[in-house]
TrEMBL record:
Catalytic activity: ATP + H2O = ADP + phosphate + H(+)
Enzymatic class: hydrolase
Domain Helicase ATP-binding: 199-453
Boundaries of every AAA+ ATPase domain copy: 217-483
Acyltransferase as UniProt keyword: no
GO molecular function annotations of the record: 5'-3' DNA helicase activity; ATP binding; DNA binding; hydrolase activity; RNA binding
Source organism per UniProt: Allomyces macrogynus (strain ATCC 38327)
Protein name stated in the entry: DNA helicase
Superkingdom assignment: Eukaryota
Cell location: Cytoplasm; Nucleus
Keywords: ATP-binding, Cytoplasm, Helicase, Hydrolase, Nucleotide-binding, Nucleus
Length: 654
């Protein structure tokens, strides 16, 4: 489809986005308040949205003179945190925790519903979580603690500020890529290089074609990367090509993990770069390029490092005194040192950023004061289809050209509002894909993950049949793995367990353990079937960590964990949302819905099932009620495809 002749009204469009962001802010705040009022700290922890029974470990000074506090399990002999969903960048409330009072909700436990203090998650490890505080550790944090994720007002304010900046830019003389994405001008391309000298000679023709398009783009180009097609590998090659041409590049993604994936690959190639923000991965290759490490290791930063050491020594001495006046005196000394450090550090930081040819950060992190006034030749946004459109503009307003990489046929970003015409439901990638058409988009067509039998249905249903399996994965099966026996289960690539007519009806989630399950569904019969199937796969030699059990419903995740986690602690059991970008040798998928009304809820979203089934490399088992799920055309097609090309089974097959 060519670029639409119908002009977008920027003022109306941006106004609608501003209203949508505010609506989303209000909804998230309402949800958070409801959760804190209705849930005990233990329930919050079980839902993965907080941690309880923590103690303060090491305290030290971080970037900007802020206080970094390690929180560790307080229970003697326990050195691992329980499973949780806290991630770098999350804002958390920190409160005193009394294990003896198990009936109080989080709101009741707090001081008038307000936390003792709040901070930002800096780093997450198996045995501790590091929090950034603006100031020294308050006295309230010397008792047992609970940490609960809060709504992030800062993010919403940044999104609204960005949209207002976009309004001002459009009223003046915006960069060409802004005009193109606002449908005020057509996308332009120069003649692509006839011969391209690749840094990575192993790229396939569709990847090379995508890079050529991006290099010839005068304003905007899109890389459409379906599951397993090497999108990130293509983005890495593009970054190398752009820097080789002397360009300055800003690389962003919607999450810390998406950014760290690129940092990790660039680090192996020894490409100079600077990572802003909070890396989610603690790999040395990633941390070595982070701003805080670079500040401390560069020559200019030596004096800053010396001041930090002095501050840390003083902070460590706080724990050795019980005298409140002595503590206050120490904190006053630290504040004075912090002022001096911030002045010196600011200069070092700006010099590092000014000298960086490749800067990597999250989309939200691109709005940092540290990048104010910085201009980049090209802004590359990876996983663009997982980002809200206003997030993308935070980065795009800092560049002269844009490359968007993603797949709008996989999971979109989470939007709280259920309103069908909500502007945030449509991502910038999806809008640009439709707006600009084939001339500005290149589809990556060779996938390196799935057996062709697993790949074929999503390829036909979503990608016009254009995907092809690389020879290295085309026919691979579980028994090809040296530790896996060929059995009735492992010899098949695709298995469908059809529970229609088996009286395995769904039920509502258990609200006694968490208010989060109020709208969720579970299915006891499917959970039993899945548990038995996983046991047989493991008995055949497949390692538990080579299997993923995926289900769209949190309540079903809980049921499956109850049945399998004690027996197989390394087995990954989770929702579709937690698996995007991941892969496993075998995937067992429980669709849950089974009712006489044939209601399927969000199973009708084909993007969700596309992600779920395309995580599998060699084996896919789908458990569902074909009669109920066939209400969805995509599900109906999947059931028919698996019935014809896979192994069709019914409950009681064992």
């Amino acid at each position: 489809m060519a670029q639409s002749a119908q002009r977008l009204d920027p003022a109306k469009f941006i106004g609608a986005l501003l209203d949508a962001v505010e609506e989303e802010r209000i909804e998230e705040a309402r949800e958070t308040e409801q959760l804190l009022k209705a849930s005990t700290p233990a329930q919050i922890q079980k839902a993965g949205l907080g941690l309880i029974n923590l103690k303060v470990g090491a305290v030290r000074t971080g970037l900007g003179g802020k206080c970094l506090v390690d929180l560790e399990p307080a229970t003697p002999g326990v050195d691992q945190l329980p499973p949780h969903k806290l991630r770098p960048g999350d804002i958390v409330a920190l409160d005193a925790y009394a294990a003896s009072d198990k009936t109080k909700t989080v709101a009741d436990s707090s001081n008038g519903g307000k936390p003792a203090t709040s901070g930002v998650v800096y780093r997450v490890a198996d045995g501790k979580i590091t929090i950034v505080l603006d100031d020294a550790v308050p006295d309230e944090m010397r008792s047992l603690l609970c940490s609960t994720r809060l709504a992030n007002e800062i993010t919403y304010n940044r999104l609204k500020d960005t949209l207002r900046d976009l309004e001002k830019v459009i009223d003046k003389n915006p960069e060409r890529h802004v005009q193109v994405l606002m449908n005020q001008a057509p996308a332009g391309f120069s003649k692509p290089p006839a011969k391209l000298k690749l840094f990575n000679p192993d790229l396939n023709p569709s990847q090379v074609d995508a890079i050529k398009l991006c290099l010839s783009a005068q304003d905007v180009a899109l890389i459409h990367g379906p599951p397993g097609t090497g999108k990130t590998q293509t983005v890495v090659e593009l970054i190398r090509q752009l820097t080789a041409r002397g360009e300055r590049v800003l690389v962003c993604g919607p999450s810390n993990i998406s950014v760290d994936n690129i940092v990790e690959r660039l680090a192996k190639l020894k490409l100079p770069m600077l990572r802003l923000g909070h890396p989610a991965r603690v790999l040395p290759s990633v941390l070595a390029h982070s701003l805080d490490v670079r500040v401390r290791t560069c020559d200019e930063g030596q004096l800053v490092t010396d001041i930090i050491k002095e501050m840390d020594t003083k902070l460590a001495s706080v724990t050795k005194t019980r005298n409140r006046q002595e503590r206050r005196a120490i904190y006053q000394d630290v504040r004075e040192l912090r002022k001096d450090m911030r002045v010196r550090e600011k200069k070092v930081v700006q010099n590092l950023i000014n000298g960086a040819k490749v800067v990597l950060t999250t989309l939200n992190g691109a709005g940092s004061k540290k990048l104010r006034g910085q201009v980049f030749d090209t802004v590359v946004i990876d996983e663009c289809a997982q980002a809200l459109e206003p997030e993308c503009w935070i980065a795009l307003l800092k560049g002269k050209k844009a490359v968007l990489a993603g797949d709008h046929l996989q999971l979109p970003p989470t939007v709280k509002s259920k309103r069908s015409n909500h502007p945030l439901h449509r991502t910038l990638f999806e809008r640009a894909h439709k707006l600009l058409g084939p001339s500005a988009v290149r589809l990556l067509t060779v996938q390196y993950r799935m057996n062709q039998l697993i790949m074929a249905y999503p390829s036909m249903a979503l990608y016009d049949g254009k995907l092809e399996a690389h020879a290295s994965v085309r026919d691979h099966v579980l028994p090809d793995l040296p530790h896996v026996e060929s059995t009735e289960d492992t010899q098949h690539v695709a298995v469908l367990y059809d529970t229609a007519g088996a009286d395995m009806h769904e039920s509502a989630g258990d609200t006694s353990t968490s208010v989060l399950n109020a709208d969720s569904k579970c299915n006891e019969g499917e959970a039993d079937l899945v548990a038995a199937y996983v046991r047989r796969l493991c008995a055949a030699g497949l390692a538990p960590d080579e299997i993923a059990v995926i289900t769209p419903y949190n309540a079903q995740v809980g049921l499956l964990k109850d049945r399998l986690h004690t027996e197989f602690p390394a087995l990954e059991i989770g929702s579709v949302d937690g698996m995007q970008g991941r892969e496993k040798e075998a995937v067992v998928l429980s669709l849950v819905r089974s009712n006489d009304q044939r209601e399927i809820g969000f199973l009708g979203d084909e993007r969700r099932l596309n992600v779920a089934m395309t995580r599998a490399r060699r084996h896919l088992c789908v458990v569902c009620d074909s009669d109920t799920v066939s209400t969805s055309p995509f599900c109906k097609g999947l059931v028919e495809y698996l019935s014809e090309h896979g192994e069709l089974r019914y409950p009681g097959y064992e």
